[in-house]
Amino acid sequence: MITTERLLLRRFTAQDEQEYADIMTDPNVYRYLGTGQGIPREAIGRMMENLDASWGHGLGVYAVIERLSGELIGHCGLRGLPCGRKELLYAYAQESWGKGYATEAAKAVLQAHDTRPLIAVAYPENPGSINVIKKLGFRRTEQEKMFGKVLESFILD
Predict the structure, then answer these.
(1) Cα angle, residue 78 at apex, residues 18 and 90 outer, rounded to 5°
(2) Fold category of 2-114 in CATH
(3) What is the pLDDT of residues 79-99, one digit of tens each?
């Protein structure tokens, strides 16, 4: 568990599934994740299991809780990719955008898990995410194709 000024980062629990489903099935949230296509509500439990399976070897994806309200607002963490690279990833409820939560949580994750080098990717049309990645000290590399999309790619050495 990690505590920041405004956030609590912890592993997901079964009780998070409804709130997490509300976030991850929002088309405005999911349009910049993976393939950009929504995921069915019934797949959220499996998605949470996959995030939980990411734990180990200095990696893990946290549920991000707003401390003041106690609400689950998204996820942030590190996961291994099939190609052997490690990725910083995050997603937040639309109501949480623009409040600095992504940067705050990611900084805490990077301090707790020093597993460099790391990559981060973002849709070119998602300047908010690109700004977060740059604030964290990642540097832009070449664009790359992932999930069938051409994404901006960044590395943190």
Answers:
(1) 50
(2) Aminopeptidase (3.40.630)
(3) 998 888 999 999 999 999 999
